[in-house]
Write a structure and sequence with these properties.
about 45% helix, alpha/beta, three-stranded parallel sheet, about 90 residues, about 10% strand, single chain, 3 strands
């Protein structure tokens, strides 16, 4: 009986991991990820806006900031993005 319970417990954990992984993948649907080289090539182009969405602590402590990037609140991206034209491409990091 203990063996059955242990097997069931392992299967339950594996099933939950699969559900969580699927949920994370689904959340990223519609978002295109690009390599940093491609992002660098877009710097300075019209209608391309780099949005720095790091939390305050990470932003303040970092010595790496993209010149010209707009500092935004991660939880208010949609509202802030509305300030730009519909043809604007956003690079969020």
């Amino acid at each position: 009986m203990r063996t059955m319970n242990a097997v069931f417990g392992v299967l339950l954990v594996l099933a939950l991991c699969g559900v969580l992984r699927t949920t994370q993948s689904a959340a990223a649907d519609g978002v295109t990820r690009i390599p940093k080289e491609e992002a660098k090539a877009l710097l300075g182009r019209p209608n391309v806006v780099f949005l720095d969405a790091r939390i305050d602590k990470a932003w303040k402590e970092s010595s790496r900031q993209i010149k010209g990037a707009v500092r935004v609140d991660l939880f208010d991206l949609e509202t802030q993005a509305a300030n730009y034209g519909k043809d604007t491409t956003f690079i969020i990091y």
